[in-house]
Amino acid sequence: MTAERREGAVNAPEAGEAILRLLGLAQRAGQLRLGSGPVLKALQREGRGIVFLARDAGGDIRKQVERALGPSRLDDATFCVEELAARFGRQKLSVVSVHDPSFVSGIAEHLDRS
């Protein structure tokens, strides 16, 4: 199975907000991976998921994520570093991922609609 890559930003601001709300729920449920280390480990160990890579992420982290992506879906156009960091209480945050099947399907619906 090949990696699925999503091009272009989520069109509706409401869709981006809905995705951020679902990511917040995933965080409260302990299912959100924040930062490059946890995301890269999750890509190796937790199977298929959705990875949100900030559109302004650095080249090194972009290459690492793309190499480790496997069957997971990559969205690298919806959020910027500042949006992710502000939403999850970090000074800087370039990448987050979710691997729980119920969260993945809910988030994928929002990505597919936009």
Q: How would you characterize the overall build of this protein?
A:
- The chain is of the alpha/beta class.
- It has helices at residues 13-28, 36-45, 59-68, 81-87, 101-113, and strands at 4-6, 32-34, 50-53, 73-75, 95-98.
- It has a five-stranded mixed β-sheet, with helices on both faces.
- The model is unreliable at 1-10 (pLDDT under 50).
| Proportion of residues in β-strands | 5-15%
Q: Main β-sheet: number of strands, strand sense, barrel status?
A: 5 strands, mixed
Helical stretch tally:
5
| Class from helix and strand fractions | alpha/beta
List unreliable stretches of 5+ residues. 1-10
Oligomeric form: single chain
Rg, nearest Å: 12 Å
State the strand order across the main sheet.
Answer: 1-4-3-5-2
**What is the helical fraction, as a range of percent?**
40-55%
CA-CA gap between termini: 24 Å
Kindly state the number of beta strands.
5
- Gross morphology is globular
What is the succession of H and E elements? EHEHEHEHEH
Mean pLDDT: 89
